[in-house]
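FORM 7B: Structural annotation worksheet

SECTION A. Query
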Amino acid sequence: MRPRTEKPTVVVIDDDESVREALCGLFQSVGLQTKDHGSVQEFLHAEPPARPACLVLDIRLPGRSGLEFQESLARDGSRRPVVLISAHVDVPMTVRAMKAGAVDVLTKPVREEDLLEAVYRAISLDAELISEAERSASLCARYATLTERERQVMALVTTGLLNKQIAAQINITEATVKLHRGHVMRKMAAGSLPELVRMSDILGVAGSHKM
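SECTION B. Predicted structure
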């Protein structure tokens, strides 16, 4: 499905200029922005593309191959969406690429419909990664507004302890626990305890705060 974003970017990396021109023309014809490079090295020295974006790489490139680059991205923890294409694709190569996180591996000559479908999936994935990163940053910013005591209460609340148990554990009154708990819910913009628990899991703070 085509992502709901304006002008995503497709970066084409292929050592054949005519292939780059043909692919860029295809992507531009459906409203996508394009950048093209003749090698991985050339791409790495260029300005990063605006996101959301995806890479369309030839598996066999001079110097550093597309598959080697895909694997290096996986080792570095990068989740940049990649579609690999090649005139010579076999099962072991496909398995290797998919294990490294490739969105798809296509054989040249590539059907336009198949390539566009793979590219749209890759761009949608990148849009999701952007949203995920933004949500995580927002969550961290909200957590940073909590006082030390509020963080302590949040860590205990999200382990399932009752207010009276928390009060006894950190030596404050139950009324004070309720007050801090309310502050936590408001500052974290949590609509319910299960939602606060999910936030705590993402932040990695459930039950982790020092007493």
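SECTION C. Observations
Strands lie at 9-13, 33-37, 53-58, 82-86, 104-107. Residues 9-136 form a domain with the Rossmann fold fold (CATH 3.40.50.2300).

SECTION D. Sign-off
Analyst initials: ____
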